[in-house]
Amino acid sequence: MSEHIPYFPDRFQRAAHYYTTGRPAYPRLLSQRVAELIGLDLDADVLDIGTGPGFLAIDFAPYARSVTALDPSAEMLKVAADNAKHAGVSISWVHGSSYDLGEHFGQYKLATFGRSFHWTDRSKTLTMLDSLIVAGGAISLYSDSFPKVPQNAWHPAYQSLLAQHGKDDPVRVDRLSSVNHETVLLGSPFDHLERITVFERRLTPATHFIDRALSFGKAWNADAAAPSQDELAAKIKTLLAAYMRHDGTVEEVVEGRALIARRSRDMQPTLSAAR
Fold first, then answer.
1. Domain 16-264 architecture
2. Over the stretch 12-39, which tens digit does the pLDDT of each residue have?
3. How far apart are CA 186 and CA 223, in angstroms?
4. Which of 110, 145, 101, 97 shows the shortest CA–CA distance to 33?
């Protein structure tokens, strides 16, 4: 069933500048584990949909022959290209979105979504990917969270600040869905699901938490009556003062997750042998 997904290609134009230092990168080990699980090698290609600052495209570059990354925001692609240049990897950048996918994109062993799958018409996107992903290939959805451990004591209050600031964002209600990704995947050709989780302990500069807040679309697209970005930054600075180390960093534990979806029909010999 098709979903009604409002399209906002310029939503992150102002936020793009803050993505690299603000958004937590996924643990590098996560991409390595996914590559190992699906048998990704230097004869295979990767498609990163909604690449944002290019985190996943860059992470997978060492494990694939080529990586193609697309994003609807031209400003975001500039940020991603700078990050790839700094990392010393070559990526093919495409200005577009999941709505532009077609046979002309070619064939891939893996398609990745880093916090971007919910912006697509998921069922239609999966149907199209069924024709783009080679036999034995996979789709991988990435997300992160902050587990309830002492190092993340700052997180509930921080999230509360962001929620209050963005409560009048008109897109927020549209993005809430009663159907989770797992349900959509189980009803698609990519119906064999596995999850990989990696925890990573970090010391993050306190200023990056301000950038993190400003990397969210809701920080820029809320109602005009919402607090300004400067006010939000001041509140975050005050909040983090109690958790800041002498070197200006705040400790955090990031839980990176990859949901890998493969076709059951591709795996029948493997599944039968395991029984």
1. 3-Layer(aba) Sandwich (3.40)
2. 556 677 888 888 999 999 999 999 999 9
3. 37
4. 110
